[in-house]
Amino acid sequence: MFKIGHSFKSKKLYKKLSIIVLSILLVIAIFKIHWLYNLELSSINLRFSLRGEEKVRDPIVIIGIDDSSIEELGNFPWDRRIYKALIDKLGKYPKVIAFDLYFDVKSSEDADKVFSDLLKKDKRIVIAAFYTVTDNPKFGSIKRLFLPLDIFSKNSKVGLVNHEYDSDGFIRRFALTDNVFEVNWYSFPLLVAAEFLGISPEKYITYLGDSFKKESKILINYRGGPYLYPYFSFVDVLNGNFDPMLFKDKIVLIGATTEALHDTYFVPFSGYVRMGSKVRLGKMPGVEIHANSIGTLISRDFIYPLYNDILVFLISLILSTFLLIFLNNLSNFAKFIMMLFIAILYLTFANFIFSKHNILLPYYIPVFGMFVSYFSNLVHDITSEEREKKLLKNLFQRFVSPNVVEELIKLEDKNIIYSKRSNISVLFADIRNFTYYSDLREPEEMVKILNEFFALVIEIIFKYGGTVDKFMGDAVMAIFGAPLYHEDFAERAVYSSLEIQSKLRELQREWELKGYPKFEVGIGIATGEALVGIVGPSQKIEYTAIGSTVNLASRLEGIAKGGEILICENTYEKVKDKFIIEDLGYVNIKGKEKPVHIYRVIGILKDGEKY
Prior knowledge:
Layout: H1 5-30, H2 34-51, E1 60-65, H3 67-73, H4 81-90, E2 96-102, H5 109-121, E3 125-136, E4 140-146, H6 150-153, E5 157-160, E6 164-165, E7 171-175, E8 177-180, E9 183-186, H7 188-197, H8 201-208, H9 210-215, E10 217-219, E11 231-233, H10 234-238, E12 251-256, E13 264-265, E14 284-285, H11 286-299, E15 304-305, H12 309-326, H13 332-357, E16 359-360, H14 364-396, H15 402-410, E17 420-431, H16 434-438, H17 443-463, E18 467-472, E19 475-480, H18 489-513, E20 521-535, E21 542-546, H19 548-559, E22 565-568, H20 569-575, E23 579-587, E24 596-606, E25 609-610
Parallel strand pairs: 1-11, 1-12, 2-3, 2-12, 3-5, 15-16, 20-22
Antiparallel strand pairs: 3-4, 6-7, 7-10, 8-9, 13-14, 17-19, 17-20, 18-19, 20-21, 22-24, 23-24, 24-25
Helix pairs in contact: 1-12, 1-14, 2-13, 7-11, 12-14, 13-14, 14-15, 17-18
């Protein structure tokens, strides 16, 4: 035999952990679905909104091609001499000038030459290129590159201005490099930032290290919503309506800001209500997205996304395990409240660590994983509870009264069936000379006697809340104090013994009338610690007690004469004020090194007198 209490508990724990792991893996998998993945992406917008807008400290100024400029200078595109005039107005004050405009179409020869000469002379200038992607059913995705005219690109730095769209249509990141036609092109923000810092793009990428180079994508640390950076109208600068010192040592970005040129996009702060306003912010001009990207590169306040599947799994596992394992003793309602508290605590922590340290933790996935784990385990617990009730009923209906079975089922703690050390009283009752008469009488007759005796004993043991452990031939073993504990378990054992002897005398008269032998019963009771619970192989489990207390009770029953009730010293100490007891002194008992002090129970004391 072996203890299976620990085995049951371990299996239960392993099942819970397995359910947690499978639930989390399921949640991670379903979050790959488009709309659920977009939900997780939307958490980035939420975290930006909760962080709020920050004061712009980046040395960046935007000159916008706005409605006023188009109204005064005419429809776009403009004569390229206008850009030459603008740069002349800016003079030497800006450190870098970058055009988020496309110069890929020829205009007049004179105007193109003027702008080409400007680019050749002024090395502060960065211009833009872009590519398009077309899905072809036959050839797959086809890229088409739109470069500035050769006379411009050979005299200037050219960076790609393509925006990186997330699946929900928002722009949250930009590429450092892009491979088009087997040529590695630097992005517009990287070229501008490197020019401002006075280093090469290659050196800047080397500085970033492998963690960024592998992805080649940088999350934009947006300072806020649209029109937060300093803006100047193109036409105002062209007309000299500005203070040149505002552009000193700055990056000047020139690009479209009017909706008419369709260069505005959704960003995390779209929909944000700016402090002091009631209007929700709309789309952000592409040139300001580049400003935020360049600002992120210059200040190096990068956002660090901790979003790989392994980390998501570990965070989800910690949250779910803490709730379902370490708080397992709570009621389902209390566990649900704790789950809500842990979810709020985690989301608050995720918002805080983003706001203060730019660390982007997985947001909804761990919380969903915890909820799915909780409800999966709840379903498992409900079905397991029904199985445990059935197990308890099947296991104990043979050993205890139906009332006790119902009490056991109602108990929330089902660990009572697991093997553990407990203080109990063990009773052995055996029919004297039964084996001798079995050889002389008919088997049917002896079985009838045995059944009548067992029925009597079971009824009395159940009456006093005891547990019929087993039948061994013509003997019975019973336990008092387990699985349901009673403080007076030793008294109950003695009371039941006295009643067995009393009722047996009535039964003996019936046996005598039928011509059966007049059998007597010897009873032994021992009290002490024993290992109590389910034992045995999984194919045949039993609820029993094991230990020296059980052995002592059996030895006492063995030396008891017919009609006697012998008890040990531990039992005597617990019941001496309730019963009339005779001290029999010390006797040598098999299996005990020292003599054992034993007593004989004679009757019940009532108000200090024999009853």
